[in-house]
Design a protein that fits this description.
five-stranded antiparallel beta sheet; single chain; alpha+beta
Amino acid sequence: MKSRKISLPIYFSLGLFAITLIWAGVLFRQNRKHSIDLTEKENTGLNIIIATQNIQRLLFTINSTDIRIISAEKFTNEGGAEYKKNIDSINTYLKTLQKSSLITKHFTDDVVKVASIINERIQLSENIIQLSAAKKQQEAFHLFHKDSSIQLRSNLTLLLQNINANAVTLLHHYQDDRQTYAHTFWKLFLILCFIVTPLFLFAGYTLIIHINQTIFLNKKFKLLSDVVANVADATLITDKNHNIIYWNKAAAKLYGKQEHEVIGKHVAVAVGSKNTEEEGNLMFEEVDRRGFWTGEVKNTHANNTPLTILTTISVLKNENQEPIGYYSVNIDFATLKNEIELKSYQSTLLNTIQDCIYAFNSNLEVTLWNKAAETFFGYKYADVKQKNIRELLSRHWVVPEEAIAARHKIEDKGEWSGEIRVYDKDGNIRHLMFTVDAVVNTESVITDYIVFTKDITKIKELEEQLKQYSQQLEEVVDQQGELNKRLSAIIENSAAMVGIMDVHHKIIYLNEAAKEKLLVPLNEDVRNLDAAIFFSPDGKFDAEIISEVMLHGKWQGKNLLYNRNGLPIPIMQVIYLHKDAQGQPEFISSTSIDISELEQKEQEVKRLSSIVENTNAIVVITDINWRLTYANAAARNKLGIGRDEDITKLYTYEFLCENSLKEIAKEEQRLIEEGRWFGEIEYKSRSGKIIPALQMVLIHKNAENQPEYISITSIDISSQKSVEKELKKTSAELLDLYNRIQNVREEERNEVARDIHDELGQNLTLIKMATFSLKKNCGDQYPHLSESVNTIFQLTQDTIDLGRKIVSNLRPNMLDDIGLPATLQWHAKTFIKSSGIDLSLNIQPYNINFNKSVNLCVYRVFQESLTNVIRYSKASLVTINVLLNGDIVDLLISDNGCGFDISEIDTTKHHGLVGMRERVYALNGSIEINSSPGKGTIIKVSIPDVNPHPLP
């Protein structure tokens, strides 16, 4: 009946589980079929997007080819083949577009219009080729620029953009459909799991309660040990003498030493400590006084690499709250320290950049305003903070329409780069290059805009000068006088990169600055080099830029040049098309300014901002009154601050526990004097959750050395605290288990000794008596038999003596019969007789005795020590003192033997030393072993609370 009660829930649960698997299989099959269908639709949408983009790219290429034909560039057979290849590619993509539109049954009319316009565009290009072949360049030029061709390209671009946008919308629809179906599927599957899980739990519980209690405890201890062994932080445990007794995997990884290499060694040796002895003493004095110590220490890896470690040391106590050792958690402080100093470095970087950098949120409120912005616009950060950026800078726009146009582009694309003229604080007109980037949160919502500016007034002046120089060069092109030499010297020595090429893109001239940046030797003749090799890695021009130059005569903006090593150089570039007296293109000039440094600084600021926002550490910035001005995502999440909540109304002390507030108050003076404070505090989130953390507080000062703001970086150490508590509990349980095991072992020894003494001893005595009777009856009549009987008699006596010795070693009954002092005296005499080594034994007072556990522990340590002397020490003298000091008994054993290096002893092969330690630790005692080669060995044991009483 009992087994039926256990099995029925199990059978029922397994049956329901099988039904669930079948249902889950059906769901998975439906989900897979739906997923394949959606994938085919998504691929169709992607094909539409790719086809429209490729058609636009190929049309740009054909357009550029038409421009070169119109510019009287020779149209070779190879060029004709490439031209035909591009047209065939357009037709291929057009077929893909038509097929995809039929599959999706969307925008079919637009595709038909696109096909019609593309055919007209290809026909136009073929007419241009025919006119060019007939050397009718002027007619080809007019044909290309007539109103119908311009309108043709405009309509085609709008249609392709419309198809592309519709395809993107359709693709998003398919993706949303996939996500909705996936959510529905997983909800159904989870509901099934939640139905079956309680039944499995009930069946499992019914089986588990029948497991043997002893096996359960062993598994529990192993689990707790495995938890400590596999925690991410280096964890080690030492005895009261700071010798390693536990070393987990993380410690082995951090210090490069395995557990067997460090067990039994002093902790300073194991971790390669570089702290002085005085620093170590002060550290452990604080541990003993407060129960823990946290701070930074200098240690060494096994390969001699220095380590900066954040360590927490705590005292381990037994159930009587008496210290039995130390527990330490070690964290590599290098990464932590970098994160703590990151905010300070970021602030310093922002304020040392010579360019204006400011930021505003989605409500147009200023959130960042660096020193360069203060200098340029004349406003302090405190004056503009939370002010509307549009109202603040409206008076500085020279042409307000430029700012309005830029604002529309920012709102459409989320970013913008361009030039705007502004008034500085003195009313001077300055040319600034603006780069605006949007900052988005994890939900892809724009939260802030960062603005980087570069003063290019001097560049603009230089461009105007170069433009004037170019005009002057065209006017006096036939004059070879002194004026030409001066103008050439100005261009040659300019800091800007100046280059000239013909309409076939062959280089005519590069000045020294251009050669230096492009890694061209100064003495190299650059004439007839293809300029395209410096404009792209594949040696091709940007078709859009060339089209703009050929059609409008000028292009300016941000671009990239590539030096001879293939490395990009970000530049601000102006390209002009120069024409001859007849208005025909003659050559092209390029003026470029290297903006690598500005780009690098922009990227560095973005990278630093991203690191701070995405770190798991709590990072906040406050004013000097501890009011919040910034909180990263981790701080808002852990403290319960809303994502859109105004943090400027909050103070840090609102999130600190009462004991942490008191601690901060004590350290406030030190924080003011040193400018920083590091320690352990406890946060309290709005939900009431307590978060222990390690915190670094930094006071940042302005140029006048006055406190300006405070940065706080905190690391959540909740997991470390939980592990520390669990480890203390495990240590107490392991100690209790050891005591139980020792008691069982002693009982087993006692039982074996009793069997040897009673059963074996009785049989041997009978054998001895029978042998003696046989010896007496033999007399002199049987001399040969008499000799054998004598041998048997002697062997029997020796066996009886050996049995007594084994019984004595297994369980010294004399401890209960005559007490500890007399037993030690008897064992000492036996030792001297068997080993020939002198032994001096001093017991004070002699007539004292202890409880059974203490008596047995002292006797076993005494016994094991003398055994080690015989086996290893080669000593001629052993001195033993047993002294009672109040309720503490001290056992001091020393010899004049060969000694040994304690750090080289492998405790896995010397169980005697381990057994001595464990026996002493089980009684809350301490054991100290001091030895060195050639200087003998000293063992000191102290056992407290021995409950001494006189012998009867």
